Structure formats: structure tokens, C-alpha cells
Amino acid sequence: MKTLNLGILAHVDAGKTSLTERLLHTAGIIGELGSVDDGSTQTDTLALERARGITIKAAVVSFAVGDVIVNLIDTPGHPDFIAEVERALGVLDGAVLVLSAVEGVQAQTRILMRTLRRLGIPALLFVNKLDRRGADPDRVFREIAEKLTPSVVAMDPVAPDRVADLLATLDEDFLTEYLTDPDAFTPSRLQAELTAKVVEGLAYPVYFGSAITGAGIDALRDGIENLLPAKEGDADGPLSGTVFKVERAPGGEKIAYVRLYSGTVAVRDKVLLGDGEGKVTAISVFDNGSAVSSGSASAGRIAKLSGLDVRIGDVFGTRPRHAQVALFSPPTLETVVSPVHAVDRGPLHQALTRLTEQDPLIGLRHDEIRGETSVSLYGEVQKEVIQATLAEEYGIDVTFSETTTICVERVSGTGSAAEIIDKAPNPFLATVGLRVEPGPAGSGISFRLEVELGSMPYSFIKAVEDAVKETLREGVHGWEVLDCVVTMTHSGYHARQSHAYGTFDKSMSSTAGDFRDLTPLVLMAALRQAGTTVHEPMHRFTLQAPADTLGPVTALLAQAWAVPRTTLTRGGTAELDGEIPAAKTHEVHQLLPSATRGEGTMETAFHGYRPVRGAAPSRSRTDHNPLERKEYLLRVLRRV
Fold it and tell me: 535-562 pLDDT, tens per residue?
């Protein structure tokens, strides 16, 4: 049988988990429909998911449609958990994007649709909740065509003329042939032509119905079976797969969710994993609604593999040629997590480290001096999830500081510094010279050499490179430094010395530790000379409000330092598009109803960084503070 890895995506509360329940019920996987409100659904298994009625973690469940095995991935709709959606998108063959027939196109709907189109993931659209008061499918279909994509066709009921009209707008050859001999295009041929365009990510069929009543579900199932690209996969090819989710068994063992693109993996197999190797101790595959133990898993399937030390994003075997990379916004908020009981300080850091295995975008910063751990976030709801998870799974009660915005630093000019071995005030047996320059936006950190590669042991050069990248996590103002070029301009070392009988003399011999400890002092001196500018995260916004409230809305945006780019008035509605500091979006969301008689809406998405206005904000350091030489040397030399 062919396999289809299918994602269910939506803005929060559009009904995607209810749709998952309906599809499972229709396939005979569950005998009774679960309820999101009652916390009894098949895929929302976390206590907090059941309590709040939202999806937090992506869940996998399988069922059959015709001769296709569907591995269905139910993803979160709340924007705080967009990272979970990102990982799921990377392993999908196709998707169903769910909209509400009442609310229509919402903020998260636009973000998801843009990502599906950018990645070329085939998708069907399902307009849900036709049973609710206020449902207006005609209006929602027009919104889809205006705000998401014009390449849509209503499929309930299927009308050959509508399908032909859409295909004619997408393909000039089709248009010419259709005008010449329309009778040659039978319903089956039109279906084949439409399928080809859907698979290419050029056409988007739209279905209408209700997950609660079951209306329209049969038509949607037909679309899933006939329009989306199920695959057989090459079970005999080289092993290739991607880890998109990691969880831990009750005993603490890691379990990797892997999309297999090629090959077959069996229990007790040794597999290449990044730069290392691991041995598979157990395998489960999804079948008839749940994961069942299996001796092996083959291409096309999603498997749960045990016994491996993995992280999300790890590659099995060879790198998949067709794996997608979804690039959502980085988290822009940060908070300090503190244990209620001081005895939990150590266990808290260990527990948070484990949580980052499941969500790598929850970045940790641990300040050993203050004993504080900070986590990066997408929103306030994530705090509740982290708090509940720590309490339920680790027995640790925590509190949070006020949420702050995460800024970054960019290098302003060129700076250089060097410290020479055996020359005061350098106390280390190493020579390091570095030059720092700005790099192109998005280029990351580049480390280059102006010294000969063989001028000293490679392990020493590697120690400098590693220390450079680690040090740049906290720049002159304490924020991560982005996009710069660091060039090693000077190097030197003392060769290995030993006493009689070959005893190693560390006091006379250079070690990698000398280079690791000296590099932060040199780098920060060069960085201070070059100068850095603090940049704050920006969001692109689209705001809609009654045209007669444009004055108060404009004043509100000016107060928030927003920069409108375009203003369009249609009928009685004004639409503004522009940029706003991420730190101000919450404030505008709160004040917008009073400025627009409750009728204004604003959607935002990450749009990069811009220099901070006014005084540059700083963040407390978590390293040994190489900006203060005396303080740094006291701590580092004491440690040595």
C-alpha cells in the first residue's frame, strides 16, 4: 500500500482536532467521537491540552483511505507553538488547511498558507463549522481567493466547468486544447489534470462541511485519496530519514519520531546518525490509529525508534533530497525561570535541558554566577505549558520573571586585537589575534584564517573557532551577535614539554584550554573596537479597521513606533500594512478595540530586526565577562 504523511493545519479553534476525530471515526479507528471541550480526543493527550482544549504537541495517528495508509499529523494552531508546526511541515507529503466558516481567513491561516506555498506542499482546504450560526461559506471562499491564493476551486459539488476554468488560468496549453476540443476533456481527464496541478502546489481544491456533524467528510476523504501524492518509497534504497520529534519513555529513554524517505531499518541495526552511529533497540510504526511494535520500518513510513541519542533535525543515513525546511520566526521573548524551592535549582536546569530536546527553539541561558536560567519563548501560553510540564513530569514548582524582548547585536565596523605569548599582560601560553568585520545579513558567523593552517596543531585552531562562536552569543551589550566575519590574524604556541621519564609539564606547554580561555578576551577587545548596534525584532502587521477610525488607529500606531507602509480604503474598511516593534504588538492588540469600536483586527508575523531607537538596552551576562579583564581572569584562573 502507498503511504501519505498528511498534516492537519489551522488557526487555533478552526476545528482541526475535531476534523482529525471525524476522519478517524469515519475510518473505523475509533468507535465514538472525542470532544475537544471534554478533553477526550485521540490526539490531545497532554493534561494541559485536555484542560485548555488546544493542541500543544504534534501527534501522529494512522488510518486507511482506499489503498492509501494515511499517517495523520495533528499540529498546534496557537502561534505560541509554531515551532511544533515547523517540524511537522518538514516531513509532510500533503496537508489539509482548515478554516472556520464563521471567522474565515485568520492570522495564522495566512502564515501557514504562505509557508505551504513556499515549500510547494500540496494542500486541500476545508471550510469547517458550516453547522454554526453565522457560517457564510460564500464569503469565506471569496476571502480565500483574495487573501490566500486565487488558484482555488470549490469541490462540493464537483463542477467540471469550474475545474476547467481554473486549469485554463494555470496552463496556456490546456486552455488552447480545451478551446479547440472541449469534449476531449472527460471528467476523469479533468480529474487527472487537476491532480497534477495540486501535486505541483499550483491548485488548491476547497471543500465545505462540518467536523461535528460529518457533513462534507466523504468528499474530503475522496480528495485526500485521489488528489494528494501518496508514495510507495524505495524500501531497498540507502537508509535516509529525518527526526522531527523527540519524546522520552517513562524510564527516561529517548524515542525518535523519524520520517523515512528511503531504505529499511530493523531492530538491532546500527545506523549512521550525524557524525556518529547508534543502535536501534525497538521500533514502532503507526497502524490502525496507534503505534504498534514492529521488527522493521520502510521508506514512506513514520517510525518511532528507541535506543538512539538524537536531537530534532538529526539525519539518519544520507541526507534526504526532498526534505523540506520550514523557516518560521525565531522566538522573540525571554523570561527567567526560578524554582519555588531552592533545593530544586539543579534539577530545574536538568529538566529544562530535557525540554529543549523536544523543542530546540526553546533556547536556554544559564547564569552560573546568579544561579538563574532563562528560556526563550513565542508567547505567554508557553509559560503555562512549561510550568505544568515541570510540575507534572518532574515535580518542580516554578515561577517566572516578567517577559522581556530578545534583541540582537550587529557589528558596526572593523576591529582587531591580539595577545602574544610570554608578553604581558597575557597570562596564557597562547598567541591569538582576531579581526572582526560585519557580514551580509543572514550569513551567520564566518571564521577565517590569515595564518597558515599548519602553523600550529589543528586542535588549537579549532579551540579558537569554538570559543569565538561561543563568545559571540553575548556581545558588547549582552545580546547575541549576528552575521559577522572573524579572521584569525596571529597564532603561536609552546610545543609540548616534559620532565624526565616523559612526565607532561603543563606549565611550559600550550594546551587547547589556553586558546579557549584567551580567545574571549581578544575577541571582545576587537568587538568593542568595531562597535555593535543593538537591533530589536520587528513584526510585519496588517491591520483592518472601520475607515472612520483611521485617525485614532494611526495615532495608536505612532505611539507604538510602528511604521505604516501602505494604506488602502475599500468601502467602509481601511487596511494598513507596515512594521511594528515586536515589543509593542501586545500593547496595540490591547488598545485596538477601544480605538475601533471593537471592530479592528491586526495580524503580525516576524519580519527581521532594526536598530533600537534611543538608548541601547543591555542584558546581564552569563559568561565570565571578558569585557572586564580583571574580573574575567580571576574567575578563569581560579577555575583552572
Answer: 999 988 888 889 999 999 999 999 999 9
Q: How many CA atoms lie within 13 A of 379 on its CB side?
A: 12
- Assign residue 483 a region (left: φ > 0; alpha: ψ between -120 and 50; beta: otherwise): left
The DSSP H or E segment spanning 291 is: strand 290-294
The DSSP letter of residue 500 is: G
597 — phi, psi (to 5°)? Answer: 60, 30
Q: Number of helices (H) and strands (E), helices first, in the chain?
A: 16, 32
Residue partners of 104: CB distance under 8 A and separation at least 6? 136, 139, 140, 143
- Length of the chain in terms of residues written: 640
Q: What pLDDT is stored for residue 457 in this prediction?
A: 92
Angle between helices 512-530 and 458-471 (to 10 degrees): 40
d(CA 240, CA 259): 9
**What's the pLDDT score for residue 124?**
97
For the chain, helix, strand, coil in percent to 5 are: 35, 30, 35
**pLDDT for res 604:** 80
Pairwise CA distance, residues 283 & 268, whole Å: 10
Residue 438 bridge partners (DSSP): 484
Note the pLDDT of residue 137. Answer: 94
Residue 271 and residue 239: Cα distance in Å, rounded?
Answer: 8
Q: Could you tell me the maximum CA-CA distance found in the chain, to the nearest angstrom?
A: 97
Per-residue confidence (pLDDT) for residue 45, from 0 to 100: 47
Task: Write the CA distances from 391 to 93, 248, 374, 397, 398, integer angstroms.
Answer: 37, 16, 18, 5, 8
10-residue averages of pLDDT along the chain (640 residues): 85 84 85 58 48 56 84 65 65 91 85 82 95 94 92 86 91 90 88 93 95 94 91 84 82 86 91 82 84 89 88 77 57 88 89 77 74 80 81 90 90 97 94 96 93 90 96 95 96 80 71 96 97 93 90 94 90 89 86 89 83 90 91 80
Task: State the Cα–Cα distance between residues 202 and 170, nearest whole angstrom.
Answer: 8
CA proximity to 13, closest of 121, 84, 73, 102? 102
Residue 83 confidence (pLDDT): 57
- Beta strands 282-287 and 290-294, pairing class: antiparallel
Contact (CB, 8 A) for 357 and 254 = yes
**138-168: burial string, b at 16+ Cβ within 10 Å, e else:** eebbebbbeebbebbbbbbebeeeebbebbe
> 144 and 125 in contact (C-beta within 8 Å)?
yes
Close Cβ partners of 494 (under 8 Å, ≥ 6 residues apart): 421, 429, 508, 509, 510
Q: How far apart are CA 627 and CA 636, in angstroms?
A: 13
Report the C-alpha gap between 56 and 44 in whole angstroms: 8
C-alpha to C-alpha distance for 446 and 437, rounded to whole angstroms: 10
Q: Which of 396, 385, 386, 388 is nearest to 345 (CA)?
A: 396
Identify whether the C-beta of residue 515 lies closer than 8 Å to the C-beta of residue 460: yes
pLDDT digits (tens, 9 = 90+) for 24-49: 888 888 767 755 545 545 444 445 44
- Give pLDDT, residue 99: 95
